[in-house]
Amino acid sequence: MKLSTKGRYAVMAMADIASRHTDKPVSLAEIAASQNISQEYLEQLFSRLRKAGLVTSVRGPGGGYRLARDPDEIFISDIISAADEPLSVTRCPDGDGVQGCQNGEACITHELWSSLRRQIWGFLSSVTLGDVVEKRNLALAAEVRRSTAMPPRVARG
Predict the structure, then answer these.
(1) Residue 20 and residue 50: Cα distance in Å, rounded?
(2) How far is the C-alpha of 64 from the C-alpha of 142, rounded, in Å?
(3) What's the pLDDT score for residue 41?
(4) What fold, for 5-147?
(5) N or C: which end of the chain has fewer CB within 10 A?
(6) Are 13 and 35 in contact (CB under 8 A)?
(7) How far is CA 142 from CA 64, 80, 124, in A?
(8) What angle do CA 29, 11, 111 make, to 5 degrees?
(9) What does pTM read for this prediction?
């Protein structure tokens, strides 16, 4: 499985904001120091998170970023998608497709890895930022949401 730093750092930064339990904007410098992430890297990520409607920015002294929605309404898959982070499990450049898998054909284990990617994405699509911050039992929270007939979320990447 491949999830590079973009997705992981975006989730960490969003969790940092959510864990502060305040409406006060949080500066990227504060997040960078707290999470040991480069402020320049965070600037790139937060541009994407803002465009995706996950955070709002406040300019000027005391400015920074706030969550655009309640942490219980932000799914981890939303954050990873906003960071433009594909979830790769197969060697196919098109994810569940077969481009380049093995001479344009699906390899013998392709469906295994594709199914694993779909399972992982399903899990990330049923765990909220609130679940992470409140240290809820993530497997249980995900199972409860899946069992309450939550509509499936489309996986990117």
Answers:
(1) 19
(2) 31
(3) 95
(4) Arc Repressor Mutant, subunit A (1.10.10)
(5) N
(6) yes
(7) 31, 17, 8
(8) 150
(9) 0.80
How large is the greatest C-alpha to C-alpha distance in the chain, in angstroms?
A: 58
pLDDT digits (tens, 9 = 90+) for 122-157: 889 989 999 999 888 777 776 777 777 555 555 554
Region for residue 111 given its phi and psi (left: phi exceeds 0; alpha: psi -120 to 50; beta: otherwise): alpha
Token pair, residue 119, equals: 């399972």
**Mean predicted confidence (pLDDT) in 9-13:** 96
Contact 30, 42 (CB under 8 A): no
What amino acid occupies position 14? Answer: M
Distance CA 9, CA 50 (A): 15
Using the CB atoms, write b or e for 3-32: b if 16+ within 10 Å.
Answer: beebbebbbbbbbbbbbbeeeebbebebbb
Q: Give the residue among 86, 82, 93 at the shortest CA–CA distance from 3.
A: 86
Domain boundaries, the chain: 5-147
Residue 30 token pair = 């504060």
